[in-house]
């Protein structure tokens, strides 16, 4: 009797897993919702990305992502590196960020040891024009900027770092490789 009940439970769990997976889509991947089997087997895990816990309570719920393109960076073809910073809000309320100047982001190009090679603000005029940026829940802001690659050398790994000068906790780094 116990064997038949155990076999029946095993068959039901296998069938539930097969139906929970569903068909695969060729479109862009979205975060999958967890099925009840996954919740039973891993009750304390989460499929959502972790939101950083900043010391400044005003920044809680914000995430900053950095994308450097193209990869690897061919220095013979590219004179300026494309940097894309995405500031997203996962908070439940709108977040207002105040800025004393019209500069929102700062970009650094550095060696892996931390030596500063280039600053984005060195080649851009910054005016004393205060402003406020409000990010609503589940929305994002993209900053698409370019920075010169003249100080980079081929066949080495470098670091691109983006941060907000007024809010230094909002910081993202990415390593990238250069090619001749």
In short:
The protein has about 180 residues and is mainly beta. The chain has helices at about 1-20, 35-40; strands at about 60-70, 75, 80-90, 95-100, 105-110, 115-120, 130-135, 140-150, 155-165, 165-180.
Annotate the secondary structure layout.
Layout: H1 2-21, H2 36-41, E1 62-69, E2 73-74, E3 80-89, E4 95-99, E5 106-111, E6 116-119, E7 131-135, E8 140-148, E9 157-164, E10 167-179
Parallel strand pairs: 2-10
Antiparallel strand pairs: 1-3, 3-8, 4-7, 5-6, 5-9, 9-10
What does this 3D model show about the protein?
- It is a single chain.
- The protein is mainly β and 180 residues long.
- Helix content is 14%, strand content 39%.
- The protein contains two helices and ten strands, in the order H-H-E-E-E-E-E-E-E-E-E-E.
- It has helices at 2-21, 36-41, and strands spanning 62-69, 73-74, 80-89, 95-99, 106-111, 116-119, 131-135, 140-148, 157-164, 167-179.
- The protein has a five-stranded mixed β-sheet with strand order 2-10-9-5-6, with no helix packed on it.
- The termini are far apart.
Compressed to H and E, one letter per element, the order equals HHEEEEEEEEEE
Spatially, the strands of the biggest sheet line up as: 2-10-9-5-6
Strand tally is 10
Shape: flat
Number of helices: 2
Query: Biggest sheet, open or closed, and with what strands and sense?
Result: 5 strands, mixed
Radius of gyration: 23 Å
State the end-to-end CA separation.
71 Å
Instruction: Tell me the helix content.
Output: 10-25%
Average pLDDT rating: 84
- Low-confidence parts lasting 5 or more residues at pLDDT below 50? 21-30
Q: What class do helices, strands and sheet pairing give? A: mainly beta
Q: From the structure provided, what is the oligomeric state, counting identical versus distinct chains?
A: single chain
Strand content: 35-45%
